[in-house]
Amino acid sequence: STLPALDEPTVEIQLVVGAGELDYERVQLVSASDTPVELTSWELTDGKDLVYTFPFVKLYPGGSIHLFSKAGTDTSIELFWKKPDAVWSSGDLIELIDPDGNTRAQNRIP
Fold this sequence. Notes:
0% of the residues lie in helices and 38% in strands. The chain is mainly beta.
């Protein structure tokens, strides 16, 4: 599928819940597009050494997906990174990168 233009909103990193606590830690992504966005091969990263690559998943207009740091079973609205420790901490800059290497969204954890 063809990605929207870089200046067109696609997905927002809306919030990070429970940063630093593995049992609760998750990132919420919300669609900002009028059409479905296939997130397959997109990456969520801290810009350093942490990278999560999305499996085949579509985010529909008005929809959201939660990416948990802990282990679990993926569903259409919940994905699990399966990390042994918490991933995020205060001050981290989270970036959502499309398969072409373009930054599509950013969020700095307070």
